[in-house]
Amino acid sequence: MLIVKKFGGTSVADKERIFNVAKRCIEDYNKGNDVVVVLSAMGKSTDDLLAMAADINPDMPKREVDMLLATGEQTSVALMSMAMRALGVPAISLNAFQVAMHSTSTYGNAKFKRIDTDRIQHEIDNRRIVIVTGFQGINKYDDITTLGRGGSDTTAVALAAALHADACEIYTDVEGVFTADPRKVPNAKKLPEITYDEMLEMATLGAQVLHNRSVELAKKYGVQLVVRSSLTTAEGTVVKEVTKMESMVVNGIATDKNTARIAVIGLQNTPGVAFKVFNILGKKNINVDVILQSIGRDNTKDISFTVSEEQADEAMEILEENKKALTADHIECDKNVAKVSVIGAGMQTNAGVASKMFEALYNAGINIRMISTSEIRITVLVDEDCADRATKAAHDMFIED
Amino acid sequence: MLIVKKFGGTSVADKERIFNVAKRCIEDYNKGNDVVVVLSAMGKSTDDLLAMAADINPDMPKREVDMLLATGEQTSVALMSMAMRALGVPAISLNAFQVAMHSTSTYGNAKFKRIDTDRIQHEIDNRRIVIVTGFQGINKYDDITTLGRGGSDTTAVALAAALHADACEIYTDVEGVFTADPRKVPNAKKLPEITYDEMLEMATLGAQVLHNRSVELAKKYGVQLVVRSSLTTAEGTVVKEVTKMESMVVNGIATDKNTARIAVIGLQNTPGVAFKVFNILGKKNINVDVILQSIGRDNTKDISFTVSEEQADEAMEILEENKKALTADHIECDKNVAKVSVIGAGMQTNAGVASKMFEALYNAGINIRMISTSEIRITVLVDEDCADRATKAAHDMFIED
């Protein structure tokens, strides 16, 4: 069996943890499996490198930042290989060049295009554990790219797909995917299984267990993922196309406090106004989420939407600059909001989930500011200080019952 | 004019020094020159990485050590590129893969085989300052190799040769090559010029200004070097094939205290005994220097030679193990010795240098333990505590007069 195992930065933060990971990989190897390991940079080293870069050049030229950041994973994989060899197992580290992991050219946010398997396969055939740098690729200029934060998950899935691996295990500091954040909802349950689509909604909405792009890629290539803890031997959560749990309508409650609500008030009620607003934001790469359009006073339109808190100020700035062209009366921003979402593939065949959600929040005395739904998700915007109560209310309604 | 400039680790140890180097390179660039910069790892970072490796795996698997160490220069070049861009100059960093700097396969001690110039030339043609990682190469397996300590000098010379550069400047923390160590001989003079051969003798004998292999390579490809300070704008020393200074017989006095004398006493006076001694040492990669063979008591032979202090214990061990096979009576080791050498291309056409050297040491009351000569060098072994006095005596005799 060929197993791809991915470990994040905290799992390789020091010597003790490196050896802990090495031993876990060697266990699988000694059972006769072929093992490919994907690693992130150690602990906070990526942050440290970014701080160095910002100190030298606040503009942070992206190509050079990627060149710099790539040293982080290269350090991890070299040390891991040394650790495994210290334990008597043949291991070899490979960076994105050596593999070769071909990506698009976009520095800081590259996507994989093609992964060569010759070198890895050759090392596997020689019964070596192969340790690959996560998070990085090379583009058509032979320059180093990075995939953006959490990109090592994507590296693992892409390698699993390219190598036709039998399993792809994502090791993290939690025991799997939970029905809600266990720190906030003490009776949150670990899910044995979850579908790709559910996981995608969870990831997008701030569950922070798996990098979003990695789930999309897993879905595209049918790579079955297991999310599990690097600290315990608990079973973890399997992420796959179809789960057996059709009976469970809602599989998770995701909470995202990193959100701000922007309202553009008093727009002329003419066609194309909404287009203008989102076109301006799109040009600045501001990602807009939950959108609501309503009729304001004097036959004007109000358009509200959410953005991440980091992008809120930039969004406000660009909208204020264009206030006249947009015919807006004024623009408001409220960072004191949070998104709470219930997610479940079973929603597609179960009516009444939305009304149950609203009932739960009503009973908890929580005001709903905006609503957005997909086939497998219902999201409500609430005041940030109500978010944890809303999560708990939804959890009690859907998971506990 | 195409200039290759190499800066060592201390020259890029922190933000301030990085910008200092950046500005020096930009000065040349702004005069219309094409500039290629070779950098070592920042400050003590190579030592830090080696310590990490030794902590994880005391055996230090060489391939993985090179993979690890290579991150040091990659960090330097990325930060330098950011610094130059912060100063408004287009710059690009390249590692050994990107260049590509093809080397032999020997990890930790690789030699360059071939350097591709397409990528660098392309960047130069676009009027970019190109910043290349020193010290590292890639071998035929696409694995990262390193050239051994001080290898960045070699990278600079190899690049200058491959690119047919008009100048190759090695920046260091001294102002050039001196007639003796200025810390020991206060009236040591900076040499405006020195030949490759003289420089080679100086480097081998512990002058520590230029990496030996870089001088050999410069001689082979006729790359004219300039050794100069990264801290001042003083002129530096030119290293070339033939200098104009035929009149000056001795160009430098080199002192090497990192030496130990080993004596193998009472060997049978039969053919092949010397071969056996040095064959045993050669197999263990122990480098032997000044050799002396003399007749001992009872028609036996004594063989003495010097090794570096680091290798002395290993040499003693292997000789003791083979004492019987060597027919040796006993083996002695004395670490309390030093080599003092006078070096000058002019010696070849000037008789009497040796006798003047012995005269100088005699006048200073210094006992000579062993003597070794080449065409352009006379080396004497003296007690270590006499070394500085011997250096000064030779300097007074040859340089001051």
Structure, described:
Chains A, B: Tetramer consisting of 2 isoforms Alpha (catalytic and regulation) and of a homodimer of 2 isoforms Beta (regulation). Two copies of one chain form a homodimer. Chain A is of the alpha/beta class and 401 residues long. Chain A folds into two domains: 2-172, Carbamate kinase (3-Layer(aba) Sandwich), CATH 3.40.1160.10; 253-400, VC0802-like (2-Layer Sandwich), CATH 3.30.2130.10. Chain A is built from 13 helices and 18 strands. The first copy, chain A, has helices at residues 15-30, 45-56, 62-86, 96-99, 118-125, 151-162, 196-207, 212-221, 273-283, 309-321, 323-326, 353-363, 387-400; strands at 2-7, 34-39, 91-94, 101-103, 112-115, 129-133, 136-138, 144-146, 167-172, 193-195, 225-229, 237-240, 252-267, 291-295, 301-307, 330-343, 370-374, 377-383. In chain A, the strands form four sheets. Chain A has an eight-stranded mixed sheet, sandwiched between helices. A six-stranded antiparallel sheet of chain A has the order 14-15-13-16-18-17. In chain A, a hairpin with an 8-residue loop joins strand 4 (101-103) and strand 5 (112-115). Chain A is globular and about 75 Å long. Chain A starts with a strand and ends with a helix. The mean pLDDT of chain A is 90.
